[in-house]
Amino acid sequence: MSENLDELKQKCLTLAQELQELFQCPVCLDSLDVLHWLCKNGHGVCSSCRSNLKSCPTCERKFVICRPTLTNQLLERLPKPCSFAVLGCPEVLFSKGHEQYCEFRQTWCRMKDCEWIGSVKSVLEHLQENHKVHLPENSTESFISCHHSTFSLAEDFSRYSTIMFKNNVFWLLFDRDSSTRSITFRFHYFPTKKPTHDYYFIVSLKKGVMEFTTTSKALIDVGVEFASDNKEWVYGPDVPKLVIPDSEFDKILEDGHKLNFTINIVEVEISDS
Fold first, then answer.
1. Do 44 and 25 contact (CB within 8 A), yes or no?
2. What is the rounded CA–CA span in Å between residue 228 and residue 213?
3. Residue 113 in contact with residue 119, Cβ under 8 Å?
4. DSSP strand pairing (197-207 vs 210-217)
5. pLDDT at 78 over 90
6. Which residue, 155, 165, 187, is CA-closest to 174?
């Protein structure tokens, strides 16, 4: 039964690809949009390419001023392969939303000096095989103890580490900005289907009665929200920062240079309303 289903999926994917080729702009090779233009022979070009053309690139006939209603109706209902089909995704799309969470979308590895780029579904395997990172699958442990062993007030730093919670791999970016006396904790993850929960990370730096706390919501890595030149995410101005006066660090550091902190993960169901 599964073999027949896989064969049917492959046939649907092939048919969707063939239909997309029929409605392909000959200039940019992308799908025609609903504002596309037709020439007198019926060849189409997308609206953005039409602005740079005086005649049809296929037959050199003039364009006609009309709106091809039937073609537009077909375009709106036309199934199409996922944009990541060339990377192995077998999905045929009849509605929007899949590609944002497609497990074949590409992402970077954030570990130091690593240039790996691959599908989000392969991140865990990459971390285990290439960085010897052990992340326990099916972990439901929501309280985690961490530390930074070489903290210095005089030095800025930025480092990535990984957390596994309920089969989600989270990147933690932990950095220190001495000019603003701030520490920032940022969390990202890459779901392979539409999320049903939001994840909040409560970070506490505590020693004795002294405690500093901040809360961050994990952002979804959709594969395009980081600057490709330096592999860093682009953040808005509202990223929460934990500001600690330099004079207070001696009250929370261990042995003068070890910074301990805990992370409590809170899972909140996303409302359908």
1. yes
2. 32
3. no
4. antiparallel
5. no
6. 187
Q: How confident is the model at residue 227 (pLDDT cuts 50, 70, 90)?
A: very low
Distant-in-sequence, close-in-space partners of 237: CB < 8 Å, separation ≥ 6: none
Q: What is the pLDDT of residues 81-100, one digit of tens each?
A: 787 888 888 887 766 778 88
pTM: 0.71
**Beta strand pairing status for 253-254 and 44-45?**
unpaired
Contact, 175 vs 245, CB < 8 A? no
**What is the spatial distance between Cα 92 and Cα 31, in angstroms, rounded to a whole number?**
15
CB 172 within 8 A of CB 110: no
Torsion (CA) 116, 119, 122, 127 in degrees, nearest 10: 30
The confidence band for 25, taking pLDDT boundaries of 50, 70 and 90, is confident
Q: H-type helices in the chain, by residue range?
A: 2-22, 47-50, 69-77, 98-101, 123-130
The DSSP letter of residue 24 is B
